[in-house]
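To the team - flavin mononucleotide complex, inputs and output below.
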Amino acid sequence: MKKPTIIFLSICFLFTLTSCAGQENTVQQSESESFISAENEAEEPSSDNNIDSIAIDATVDTEEDSSSHILIAYFTWADNTVVDDPESVDTDATTSASVLVPGNAAKLACWIQERTGGELFSIVVTEPYSSDYDECLERAAEEKAENARPELATHIENMEDYDIVFLGFPNWWYTVPMAIHSFIEEYDFSGKTVIPFVTHGTGGLAATIQDITAALPDSTEILEPIGIYRPEVDEAQSAVNAWLDELGFSDKTAETANTEEASENTDKSILLIVDGQEIAITLYDTPAANALYDMLPLELTFEDFNHIENIIYLPEELPTEGEPDGCDPDIGDFCLYEPWGNLSIFYQDFRESNGLIPLGHIESGIEILSGMTDDFTAILEKQTE
Ligand SMILES: Cc1cc2nc3c(=O)[nH]c(=O)nc-3n(C[C@H](O)[C@H](O)[C@H](O)COP(=O)(O)O)c2cc1C
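Output:
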């Protein structure tokens, strides 16, 4: 299973991801516009465009090198704050909604992952920001003024394995959150390709791209960024796909990678159907996963567990002999938790856990499970061609 080796410093730093949706590529800047007032967010973003002045290069030759290892690293407020009572968050207020997972940058990251098959990585600081908008603004302003480097809680051990890094973040105070500088300075980006994706309020991309360009080595190739205006994020998947097409990440990239993988093993495709929506899952070629495959179709009632995973109990036990003692689940991993006998779908990242046996991985549709904290019934069935 291809995955980045990530050190999790603490159980408290659970990553996010999920949900995707789509529209319009907004690449603009407006220094004077306020992003603080929620009312202002309803305004159309300015049409100024500061991107033309930046040396933005070519496209990625994914045809030639479909084996490029792609990392999708992103910073989002929702993964960097603690909300004591998510129920109390007013999701109609633009400012408050950002504290609920998945954050806007995470939504974009998810769509990039769906198209490119890259590995997701949430940049998380050791000291979470306040979930209060004004307090968060204040700390972010101080960090910018001090040119601070907030300490990071999440790290990538094998950065050398990635040659393409999609780097996502919100516009914070007309630039990148300072944690992005902490991230950039932690690794050697020489010779890598960096592809920024930005979400913002009425201020557009502002100085974000210039600032990361200045922070990255000269030998880093920086490709055309995408900027998505906050109120348009949920409708932005088609814009993200169009941008990825332009960059050379056609649908075929993921398909080729999938075909190559399929020819190497006998993984099986299954579907989880929730309210008529399909979530595609690849089951690995292991005794436990094969036994599950043989049980299908099944109607199952999932429940939420700790806002991290959806779990269900199977009518029969799966064989676990010879399976690994545990694993470190990523977002989208489909596992058996052997001590309790339940299946788990991780819609949040989680720590290395004993007794967790990988069965497969969600290929598409994980956003459907986003925020499904109530019980739900779903059909798990074999995928027919
Ligand atoms: C601390 C802070 C500073 C912000 N500064 C700006 C800004 O300067 N310009 C702007 O357009 N939007 C600004 N925003 C709005 C965010 O860029 C926007 O809400 C973004 O979609 C949030 O993405 P996220 O959910 O991934 O964190 C700011 C938001 C916060 C929390």
